[in-house]
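Deliverable D5.2: sample structural annotation.
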Amino acid sequence: MVEVIGLARDAKGSSLFDPPPLQLYVPLRQNYMSEMTLHLRTSGEPEQMIAAVRESIHEIDRSLPVDEVRALSQQFDNALATQRLSATLISGFGLLALALAMIGLYGVISYTVAEGTREIGIRMALGAQIGDVLKQVIGQGMKLALAGVAIGLVAALALTRLLKGMLFGVSATDPLTFVSIVLLLMGIAMLACYFPSRRATKVDPTVALRYE
C-alpha cells in the first residue's frame, strides 16, 4: 500500500529529447539506495558553493563520498554535447556551401558581364544610364539567387524531419530562422552581384564597341 501525498511536475530523465518518464518519489528509508543525487538551489554562483556543500555533507558523515559535483548548466552542456557537435559540423558545411555559392554567383555574373560588354557598350552609347546598367546586371544575378533560394527552401522543409532529433528548445520549422537565412542569402547575393555590376558601369562605350 502506497499513500500518495502530492504530485510533481514532469521532469526529464537522462535525455533532454525523450518524453518525461513515469517516476515515483519515495522516502529514502523506504527504498534505500547506496547512491543518490542531491539538488541544491543557490542565490549565487553554483561553483562557489561546491566546497561548502562538501563540507556540510562531511559534517554529517566523513565517510560519505561526494563526487560528480557540477552546476546544472554544466549538466545541460554534457547532455547536449553530441547535438552541439553535430550542429557545429552542419554549420561549418553550411558556411562552406554559402561561400561556394557566393563565389559561384560572382563568377557567373562576372562572366555574364564580360560576355555582354559589347551589348552594354551599345546601350550606354545609345544613352543608357548607369542606373539602367546596374539594374540589368543585378537583376540577372538576383533572378539566379531567387531560384536557388526557392529550391533550397523546398529542400530544407523536406529535410526538417531529420533535424527534429537534433534540436532542443527550437522548432525545426522556426519561421524566424527561415526568414533570417533567406535575408542573409539575398544580402550576400546582392553583394556578389554588386562588384561585377559596378565594373559594367565603367565600360567605355567606344572601347566596348570594339570589344570581341
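Annotation notes: Residues 121 and 205 are 4 Å apart (CA to CA). Residues 81-209 form one domain.
The annotation will be released with the project's public dataset once the embargo ends.
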